């Protein structure tokens, strides 16, 4: 009888191990949590003057790795290739301020939203008094900039179909074009626009009321349900014990970190 019980217990252990998904298994076996992001998206992920990666997502990722007892490994990659990078196994998950969209959800599985943002607008001061909302920009007389492959591009095309669209590889290029007066406005994520305005006071006008609803989530390859379960429970835990609030306040309610950024 004892033998049968032992065999049954062993079978249960083997079965449970076999059922664990690939991502969690690889993290545990390798002792590393490899996280993909595109550095330059304030305040989520940035490159500090010392070459280290810093930001809201970076701190959340480091905290997650500590909770799992593994090493945090940052994987900086271009935004337009970030999902292929994940799907080819170069990282375990995307933690990069990625908006949960139906199209992306056909390629990856998302955790529950860990923060909600929206698109806002930076306007060249020459349009002061003429442009007070996104509706005013929906005119063939205006040129609107945004970053290629982002929800800013989707929002521009959806809500400003009459305006000319200029797409850029980085948000830094796009906002510089607005500041130089070569384009009229930038449509991009509220956190970036808000921080840029604070850092460059008086340079551009921020229409700070977001005109889209965008929940951000962490992404893993499809089929890794145990990893999604872990991410959702991890998020619930850090929101309940104050860890999330502490990290959020550091990056969204304080600007001391701006001195660290290139």
UniProtKB/TrEMBL annotation:
GO function term, MF aspect, one: ligand-gated monoatomic ion channel activity
InterPro entries (alphabetical):
Iontro_rcpt_C, Solute-binding_3/MltF_N
Q: Which segments constitute the Solute-binding protein family 3/N-terminal domain?
A: 32-255
The entry sums up its family as follows:
Belongs to the bacterial solute-binding protein 3 family.
A Gene Ontology CC term for this entry? membrane
Q: Where is the Ionotropic glutamate receptor C-terminal domain?
A: 32-254
What is the protein name given in its UniProt record?
Amino acid ABC transporter substrate-binding protein
Q: State the signal peptide span.
A: 1-20
> Is Nucleotide-binding one of the keywords?
no
Instruction: Print the keywords alphabetically.
Output: Signal
Identify the taxonomic lineage of the organism of origin: Bacteria, Pseudomonadati, Pseudomonadota, Gammaproteobacteria, Vibrionales
Pfam families membership:
SBP_bac_3
Is Signal one of the keywords? yes
Query: What organism does the record attribute this protein to?
Result: Vibrio nereis
């Amino acid at each position: 009888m004892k033998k049968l019980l032992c065999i049954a217990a062993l079978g249960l252990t083997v079965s449970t191990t076999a059922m664990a998904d690939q991502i969690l298994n690889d993290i545990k076996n390798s002792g590393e949590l490899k996280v993909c992001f595109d550095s330059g998206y304030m305040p989520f992920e940035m490159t500090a003057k010392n070459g280290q990666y810093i930001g809201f997502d970076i701190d959340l990722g480091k905290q997650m790795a500590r909770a799992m007892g593994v090493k945090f490994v940052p994987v900086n990659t271009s935004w337009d290739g970030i999902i292929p990078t994940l799907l080819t196994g170069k990282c375990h998950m995307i933690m990069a301020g990625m908006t949960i969209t139906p199209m992306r959800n056909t390629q990856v599985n998302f955790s529950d939203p860990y923060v909600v943002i929206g698109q806002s607008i930076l306007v060249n001061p020459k349009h002061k008094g003429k442009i007070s909302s996104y509706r005013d920009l929906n005119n063939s007389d205006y040129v609107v900039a945004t970053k290629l492959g982002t929800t800013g591009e989707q929002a521009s095309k959806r809500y400003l179909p009459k305006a000319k669209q200029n797409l850029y590889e980085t948000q830094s290029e796009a906002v510089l074009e607005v500041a130089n007066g070569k384009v009229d406005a930038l449509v991009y994520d509220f956190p970036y626009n808000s921080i840029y305005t604070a850092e460059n006071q008086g340079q551009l006008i921020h229409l700070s009321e977001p005109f889209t609803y965008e929940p951000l989530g962490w992404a893993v390859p499809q089929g890794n349900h145990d990893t999604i379960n872990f991410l959702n429970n991890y998020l619930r835990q850090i929101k309940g014990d104050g860890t999330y609030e502490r990290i959020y306040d550091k990056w969204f309610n304080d600007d001391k970190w701006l001195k660290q950024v290139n």
